[in-house]
Write a structure and sequence with these properties.
Layout lengths: L5 E7 L2 E7 L6 E5 L14 E5 L11 E6 L13 E4 L5 E14 L9 E3 L9 E13 L4 H4 L9 E3 L8 E3 L3 E5 L3 E5 L11 H4 E3 L7 E3 L1 H14 L3 E7 L2 E15 L2 E14 L5 E12 L4 E7 L7 E2 L5 E10 L3 E11 L5 E12 L14
Parallel strand pairs: 3-4, 7-16
Antiparallel strand pairs: 1-2, 2-4, 3-5, 5-13, 6-7, 6-13, 7-9, 8-9, 9-12, 10-11, 14-15, 16-17, 17-18, 18-22, 19-20, 19-21, 19-23, 23-24
Organism: Odobenus rosmarus divergens (Pacific walrus)
Protein name: Polymerase delta-interacting protein 2
Keywords: DNA damage, DNA repair, Mitochondrion, Nucleus, Phosphoprotein, Transit peptide
Length: about 375
């Protein structure tokens, strides 16, 4: 129907992003608001960010942030592209893309490019397809409002041998799938507040987008490539709960005359239904090439038992695993509870833990 308005609301903690677009033929204004949380009228084409009434500053008015662009159906976003995250609602900027292999157990690939058949869940073969992800910076102003839905210190590295910490993190660094990018433009020369923004990007009004990579960003990407690289993504849906897993190799450490290999894995849980569910338990099976099989059970994940609802459908977190072997597999289930007290298990897609055998030395501190 001509003039039909598509409207989407994104709940992020106590903060709301509301999008109201007509046809997406051209750019639409993007504004920030401290309004009372009601959605804009159906006739409007303005995108607003709303704070809930319990967190609303008195007298807050609309403040222009930028102008929406038409999302790209084909091709990649360039370094310096500003965006809103379509699920978690934060403002961010693209640093550089990664070409990953997506193994989606819900979709049969008609033209397989690569196949995997890891341990767990029987012998179902999954075909991989190329999918674009982006390394991005998160605006520090939005971090407090997404911390209950997505970790803002999820990208971790092994610390120095002489460091008392086992791991360290870079705050406000994330990986975002191409379809989660809602691009926009801004006239602000520093539109994203992050300590690395000025260090990595340079404003150039002759370019589109007007933020180009400094040599610092190129050098950082090259030196840390083995520990940042996103190569495989695994996805599976059970009873309308979609689980996406992205494993990362972190490096090897020597401990008590043996080698210990480390990985981090990022997991995103999405409720594709309107029914409210709550994660209660996790059950992992961890197989090591050395021949060991470990079972891990526990309440929730990272100390939380997130509720997935229509208003807040997603939760994302990262964790770590170490093996005394250069490779292995992980798989398992999450147990969810319905409002009536009944439970159901959601499969975690099996994924491989592979080391970069050519890279014997993990990063010692942050390379610039």
């Amino acid at each position: 129907m001509a003039g039909c308005v598509a409207r989407r609301a994104l709940a992020v903690g106590s903060r709301w992003w509301s999008r109201s677009l007509t046809g997406v033929r051209g750019p639409r204004p993007l504004c920030a608001s401290g309004g009372a949380g009601a959605f804009p009228p159906a006739a409007t084409t303005t995108t607003r960010r709303h704070l809930s009434s319990r967190n609303r500053p008195e007298g807050k008015v609309l403040e222009t942030v930028g102008v929406f662009e038409v999302p790209k159906q084909n091709g990649k976003y360039e370094t310096g592209q500003l965006f809103l995250h379509s699920v978690f609602g934060y403002r961010g900027v693209v640093l550089f893309p990664w070409q990953a292999r997506l193994y989606d157990r819900d979709v049969a690939s008609a033209a397989p490019e690569k196949a995997e058949n890891p341990a767990g869940h029987g012998s179902k073969e999954v075909k991989g397809k190329t999918h674009t992800y982006y390394q991005v910076l998160i605006d520090a102003r939005d971090c407090p409002h997404i911390s209950q839905r997505s970790q803002t210190e999820a990208v971790t590295f092994l610390a120095n041998h002489d460091d008392s910490r086992a791991l360290y993190a870079i705050p406000g660094l994330d990986y975002v799938s191409h379809e989660d990018i809602l691009p926009y433009t801004s006239t602000d020369q520093v539109p994203i507040q992050h300590e690395l923004f000025d260090r990595f990007l340079l404003y150039d009004q002759t370019k589109a987008p007007p933020f180009v990579a400094r040599e610092t960003l190129r050098a950082w990407q090259e030196k840390n490539h083995p520990w940042l690289e996103l190569s495989d993504v695994h996805r599976e849906t059970t009873e309308n709960i979609r689980v996406t897993v992205i494993p990362f190799y972190m490096g090897m450490r020597e401990a008590q005359n043996s080698h210990v290999y480390w990985w981090r894995y990022c997991i995103r849980l999405e409720n594709l239904d309107s029914d409210v569910v709550q994660l209660r338990e996790r059950h992992w099976r961890i197989f090591s090439l050395s021949g060991t099989l470990e079972t891990v059970r526990g309440r929730g994940v990272v100390g939380r038992e997130p509720v997935l609802s229509k208003e807040q459908p997603a939760f994302q977190y990262s964790s770590h695993v170490s093996l005394q072997a250069s490779s292995g597999h992980m798989w398992g289930t999450f147990r969810f509870e319905r409002p009536d007290g009944s439970h159901f298990d959601v499969r975690i897609p099996p994924f491989s833990l592979e080391s970069n055998k050519d890279e014997k030395t993990p990063p010692s501190g942050l390379h610039w």
